[in-house]
Design a protein that fits this description.
Elements lengths: L4 H12 L1 E4 L2 E4 L9 H16 L3 E6 L9 H13 L7 E3 L4 H13 L3 E4 L3 H7 L17 H13 L8 E4 L14 E5 L13 E3 L1 H12 L3 E5 L6 H11 L7 E5 L3 E2 L6 H9 L14 H7 L3 H11 L7 E2 L1 H12 L4 E3 L1 E2 L2 E6 L7 E7 L9 E7 L1 E5 L19 E4 L4 E9 L5 E9 L16 E2 L2 E2 L4 E8 L3 E3 L5 E3 L4 E8 L1 H4 L6 E4 L3 E5 L10 E7 L6
Parallel strand pairs: 2-3, 3-4, 9-10, 11-12, 13-28, 15-21, 19-22, 24-30
Antiparallel strand pairs: 5-6, 6-7, 7-8, 14-27, 15-18, 16-17, 18-23, 19-20, 20-21, 24-27, 25-26, 28-29, 29-30
Helix pairs in contact: 7-8, 11-12
Amino acid sequence: MADNFIHEIIEKDLETHKYGDKVCTRFPPEPNGYLHIGHAKSICLNFSTAAKYGGKCNLRYDDTNPVKEDVEYVDSIEEDVRWLGFEWDKRLWASDYFDTMYEAAVELIKKGKAFVCDLTGEEIREYRGTLKEPGKESPCRNRTVEENLRLFEEMKAGKYKDGEKVLRAKIDMASPNINMRDPIIYRIAHTPHHNTGDKWCIYPMYDFAHPIEDAIEGITHSICTLEFEDHRPLYDWVLKEVGWWPAPPQQIEFARLNLTNTVMSKRYLKAMVDDGTVEGWDDPRMPTIAGIRRRGYTPEAVRNFCEAIGVAKANSTVDISLLEHCVREDLKEKVESRNVVFDPVKLIITNYPEGESELCDMDNNAQNPNLGTRQVTFSGELWIDGADFMEEPPKKYFRLFPGNEVRLKGAYFVTCTGFSKNEDGSIKEVYCTYDPDTRSGSGFEGRKVKGTIHFVNAKDAVPITIRQYGYLMTEDEEGNMVKNPDTVRTITAYAETAAAKAAPGERFQFFRHGYFVADSKLHTGEKPVFNEIVPLKSSWK
């Protein structure tokens, strides 16, 4: 990552030897859904920060909730991290530390810093107060250490029902920070855990578990998103009052990634998967890392995007066109070009020798000669883009119209002599003559033409399915995010044979149209399916 305030903090800590010469970070996802582009920023920040300072970064699954962890999510998380180009030092589970967390809670009770409370959840909320008014102390707050230890042990032994008792930190009910008003640190949940089975019926709250997990692992800099800033005093309080770690980790917050036209709430994304709005978590319209991978985005482009937006202390929204710009910039010299015709119209060259054909050499990438050339078949019957012919063109239209001459890319000059229509008035065929002296590469230096269009040979062109995407979300007039009704356009196009031979996941530039990828799930040699990655032109400045 570019220099940022987090790196400045780390460099000062290295100068003062706060943690010796050690830098250790972690990426701690909850395995309850697929990661999205916002997580990509956190992954890049944590892993690249550790790498920059010769440190280590752990992958830790935050599974303190006794919910059934899904192997599908774990597998997808690991695939995403590796796809982005990173490898963790250790793979860890927060639930492996439940014994230590329980001992830490007992330590707080012994120090008079925690108590068992009988209030209901609703009563605890009522007692908490407001931002303007202090809270009210629980009637259980002054229980003796001995009574609290006994009750907490009974909670662990399963004597009480869910919600009947909780363990709370004893801090300050008048604190201006509501998170410090005797927060709950343990609750009862008679629910088996995927990792620990039936061993526990009490589970730590995230705000209590998080600092302990970091401390056990020797994390030096616990990098979180901005919503955890108000929780930092509690993070520090837990580590100080438990008191087992002489050089406790420090939490540092940065602004999470917000993108225009994009919702990144796991709950909302899951709802779209469940109600069939999208094909699944890896639908190419989804902002999940699985979705953008299937869409054809590259890990280099995502890393470059995260580098470009930097690390900020204040929340803001980034225009999604910057992400698309980074994808376009990464692909422009990497991928080969192919001729693909949209909305095809037949082009008949009336003076071309009947039944004959020839091969034309074409650059695979005009910006990168190292990608070589390929040969495309040319004959008297071709397909051209429907947009490349107009019966009555406007000014500055330089493509085909009656009487106009254009270059067929890699081949010859042709002049339009006429056209025919279907019964519905659409263009059926366009007729041209060609000039055999104007073949590309022949050294012809005669007249100039303003327009160049591409083609595919009608006889061996391959029909392919193309899926173009809109944004799932858009802003209404009041600035609220709402679903877009139509976000997929499926068309049949004609491609040169080299495009149809693509392997799933292979990317191309379709000449004059944009960047496309052979779909990793649907594409086969018999039924080629391509997803639009990004169009050619960028609206981002």
